Request: fold
Amino acid sequence: MSNAADLTAADQAIAALRSGHDDLAPRVRAMRPEELTGPSGASEWSVAQVLSHLGSGAEINLATLDAALGRADAPDGDFNKRVWARWDAMTPTDQAEGFLRANAELVDRYESLDATTRENLRIDLGFLPQPVDVATAAGFRLMEYALHAWDVEVASDPRATVAPEAVPLLLDRLGMFFGFIAHPDALAGRHGTLAVNLTDPDRSFGLDLGDAVTQIDAPGRPDGVLRAPAEAWLRLATGRLAPEHTPASVTVDGGPVSLDDLRRLFPGY
Reply:
């Protein structure tokens, strides 16, 4: 059995996708129809709609993976729209059952890749300028999966957290999305630097707050300090840290912004 230190980035992402599926699947199977149509952690979606998003995403991811493996033709320009339309037309129960099938198939396919393929395969995701390696493709899927799995789980468990296996793998990837997920206009012209000190796992870096939001090295003399568990930081930066879901250990001291300001800066998606 491999030591954790021997696992590649692709291995780790695939293992986290497996554990995430194995954790969420029995919860989904046990859901009553009224739970599926009830609100999720995603403010505009029901639980079933979140599962539809994850299921259609799994189908699209599998299509790009199979194309890279030579198992199928590359998806055409309208493929995603056809997939989304079909999933949107499903009943909530069918969306839940479809998620279970589609996500299991995607994880199975990732797990079937041997070590050489995991290292050398390049996958055209369709929205990046060039194909990416398996670690990157699986990492993107994990970012989507882990956060939306929380959206499903928090519907019945207000104390739900992002899966611990996913947290360290997502931390280093999050900053690249700030251009899409941060809304600096919420700061009303305020500028400054914020030190971010995380636990479980421990990480320290900074945020340069201004006309844009940029992750920087830990500042020596920050204007303020955010302290939080790492998984809570992931939820804060993706719009999932409402007051009722905020651990007491999350604090913001000094500086130009409060925790509520950060919630507005990162409203979610």
The radius of gyration is 19 Å. The chain has two domains: 4-165, 176-265.
